[in-house]
Amino acid sequence: MSLLSGSRGRFVLGHNEYGLRPDLALVASMVEPGTRLLDVGCGDGALLEYLVKVKGCDGRGMEISQAGVNACVARGLSVVQGDADRHLVDYPDDSFDYVLLSQTLQAVRSPREVLLQMLRLADTTIVSFLNYGHWAARWSMVTRGRMPHTRALSTPWFETPNIHPCTVKDFMDLTRILKLGTGRAYGLAKEREVTTITHGFEGQANLFAEQAVFELLRPQQPKGKKRRPA
Amino acid sequence: MSKAMPAVHELQESLAGPRAVINGGAPMRLESGAMLGPVTVAYQTWGELNAERSNVVLVCHALTGDQYAVGTHPITGKPGWWESMIGPGKSIDTDRFFVICPNCLGGCMGTTGPAATNPETGEPYGTSFPVITIRDMVQAQAMLLDTLGIDKVMCVIGGSMGAMQVLDWAACFPERVVSAVAIAGAARHSAQNIAFHEVGRQAIMADPDWCNGFYFREGKRPESGLSVARMAAHITYLSEPALWRKFGRALQDRYTKSYGFDADFQVESYLRYQGASFVQRFDANAYLYITRAMDYFDLEADYQGELANAFRGARTRFLLLSFTSDWLFPTSESKEVVRAMNRAAANVSFVEVESDKGHDAFLLDEPDMFATVGGFVDSVAREQEAGR
Predict the structure, then answer these.
(1) B36, part of any domain
(2) Is residue B3 part of a domain?
(3) In principle, which of B39, B97, B214, B321 could form an S-S bond with B112, CB 3.0–4.6 Å?
(4) Is B2 a domain residue?
(5) Is A89 on the interface with B (CB under 8 A)?
(6) pLDDT along chain B (388 residues), means of 10
(7) Same domain, B255 and B344
(8) Nearest-CB residue to A91 (from B342, B353, B382)
(9) Of B127, B101, B95, B149, nearest in space to B201 by CA
(10) Global ipTM
């Protein structure tokens, strides 16, 4: 993957030629070209547009804000106004190859249900979230006695949309509870430094990753991926 | 309002604007199996058709709308019903697009309908006019485009009954419709909406001046019946917050209650005005036929109870809009269509616009609607240009 360069296990994310935010570029790098996908919480459609126009994906979006939907529609994307908690049920089983959830998981009312719904729609989901276990967040909380205030977590508690903050370990616990398979997993720090998260060594990512990106697979499914013909 | 004004059926021939005899002058077969014809369609256009004939926007009007979406209405003298949406630099930009708005089949503004002259009898059809459907309206529009030499429509757009036509267009002619915008619509008319229409029709038919639909023979017009129908319907186009904001319980031209049945309240006076002005520009029989067409509309039933089948395989890009306070065509109806389109893996975008103006919001100043529609139509046009 041209997007990633570096030694095994550690990479520095190259600049995306379309100016895609590094965490979105990382998500995009994990998507096979030409696949069908749904981007949940697609915002202004930057990632979705890249996937549709550059990677040739057949993409759809779901976005809660009218401004976001308008921006997407003006980019020529197909986006439905809705929220992950209530409107994923509107799609039939196996509608997509991937369902993406970028920095939205912590903002939904029922993260657990949302993950299960996503895996009903596709056998693979890619989820990115902010890691509240990052050392700076811990340090901030311990020394200040207040909710973390760091470079990555700069929104005050009363304004953050993240009503379900979690750490990398918390997230992995949930995947175990739900018996979800995990595929590739990356920690992201200092905007562009990517570390592969491996089982048994998640403590490191939990401490040093500001964001995490996980590929999740349906329960009891072998890790090999099957794709429907495009 | 004066009785001296000519009735709508008397104005048919004098209305401004182009009209075309469709289907080469041959009768068209209606969904009911009846034959109707020759059929004339009156229409209005704005902007220029480009050399590739690829910049056509087809506008489908609502129940009581007509082809005068832009410009002064020849009867009322008022501005067009969608001036806010269509024009130079507007969401539907007439500097770029060739916009065409036909009067629907069964209408009373020059297109063949119950007010038009039956060539066999030399008098208006009246209730001898066959019952028509939304699909018949769409077929007539398609024949009009055939007559004008237009194959593909870059965008077909409409609100309310217009949205029904838009959905039917996409279902009937997926290969002719590049994109479709259905505003405040539904895939079928609800029981409640059929019920409201029946109230309106009964009001017309209970008017002794209706004369079983042959009022023109008697030189009469069922004005009071049509007016009541309009008043009842008009309430359904608004919302309680909109009515309250506009009128509250304010009294009309008086300081105290009259203890009688005058229009004491402003809202009563407003409705009476709506009814009285409506009868000057609309034919009572046309109202019967068009409301019936809406009642019969059920796209789901047309596709064996699976609405998704109406859109399967379509490459059309769809945009659906609804309004939060619309209780006539509520958001749930639009979402039903969106869900079906998802099942069919169609390209659909959907927005629920925040508005307290009720169903009529699609005709009013709704900046979010203009932004969404404008962005959508522009992206379709750019995509089409890039693909050429």
Answers:
(1) yes
(2) no
(3) B39
(4) no
(5) no
(6) 61 83 97 96 97 97 97 94 98 98 97 95 96 98 98 98 98 98 98 97 98 95 97 96 92 89 92 95 97 98 95 95 97 96 94 95 96 96 86
(7) no
(8) B342
(9) B127
(10) 0.84
